[in-house]
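Contributing new records

If you add data, match the layout below exactly. Sequence lines come first and carry their own label; structure lines follow with theirs. Keep one chain per record. Anything else will be rejected by the validation script.
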Amino acid sequence: MNANVLNLFLFVGLPYAALVVCAAGVIYRYRQKGFTVSSISSQFLEGKSLFWGTVPFHVGILVVFFGHLTAFMFPRAILAWNTEPVRLIILHVTAFTFGLTVLVGLGALMYRRLTNPRIRAVTTGMDIVLEILLLAQVVFGLWIALGYRWGASWFAADLTPYLWSLLKLSPETSAVFALPWVIKVHIVGAFILVLIVPFTRLVHFFVAPLHYITRPYQQMIW
């Protein structure tokens, strides 16, 4: 396959396919199989090792996600922040630290899934696929952070315009085509994760109980 055709498929066709499948799949699953729209928690089977996996994983992934989202939504603010070397280093070290936190948490969750017979009994093939994809994304992300430093700046300068061009239905791909292969793999991995959301536990992100933050405390009687 011609390299340009492959690039067009991966960075134009795949993103749109991922968004359409994700939106349609989530709506269908919520309307037709609403009770399955959850993380399908297995904490009741074994909770101690779950704590040491799920807490660092969720904390780390939220920080990393909102870091990417901030660079996407406010690229000029990020570039202005990074004009000061000390601030740039702080941002880079913080992002890398929370990336490692995700890796540690995900590693603990995968170890728990593979070594606990009760957890293996309720594990699906898609659970394994999802965790492998997430592991690959984290490893590539850390690799990029070490090998292609100051990612916050080139993300805001190169990837943000590309992503916005997709949303405006006028793809501008020249910058992303020129990126190193490891970054391209990381981008494609993100689109694949979006694509499979409706078929995995990740769908529970759309029904996160954020209203609990403002809801009054409930009195529990044991």
